[in-house]
Amino acid sequence: MIISMKRGATQEQIDRVKELIEGFGYRVHESKGEERMVFGAVGDERGKERLTCLEAQPGVEKVIPILSPYKLASRETNPRSTVIDMGLGVSVGSTRLLVIAGPCAVESQEQIMTVASALKDSGAHMLRGGAFKPRTSPYAFQGLKDDGLVLLSQAREEYGIPVITEVMDIASIEIILEYADCLQVGARNIQNFQLLKQVGKTNKPVLLKRGMSTTIEEFLMSAEYVLSEGNSNVILCERGIRTFETATRNTLDISAVPVLKEKTHLPVIVDPSHGTGHARYVEPMAYAAIAAGADGLMIEVHPRPEEALSDGPQSLRPHEFRKVMEGIKRIAAAVDRTL
Question: Going from the N-terminus, what domains does the chain have, and what CATH number goes with each?
Answer without folding.
Answer: 2-64 (3.30.70.1140), 84-334 (3.20.20.70)
